[in-house]
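Milestone M4 deliverable, item 7.
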Amino acid sequence: MPFPTLQIPEFLTLKREIETYPRMHGEYLIDLVSIAHLRAGGLNENDILDEVYCHWSGVASVEDLLYRGEGDGYEVSTQHLLETLVDGLKGGAAVGHTIDSMPEQEALRFSQRFLDLFEQPRGYMGMGITDRCIFEHGLLLMDQNHAGLLLVLEDD
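Output delivered:
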């Protein structure tokens, strides 16, 4: 199921600003899509998570998912959402490097702006959305109407 990137100016500006900070040995995966049609169709949280995971990972069907089980096993508590995003964007030791990819204050500012795109988001991490790297840091976020991805993919 295709999910076109939402053309929300605040999101597109944020994405461009984050991407001005090059990764030492990696890249960013940043996206924001609508999931309102899935909710309207009666899908539950785990089914929606499966659908957006398939979209971003390139997996053809739910049966081929790299992660297994309910999304709850990958959920990050609300109080750790900001910290998880900051750690991924900042880089450094979190991704096996001796220097940071961006200053912590910038990582904090970008992370808060990304979170502000959502109303009461649930966050998921460690799902193995791609096998193109050693380190995958960041979150897949979902609220009532949107799903967003802010991941740092990095090799050491």
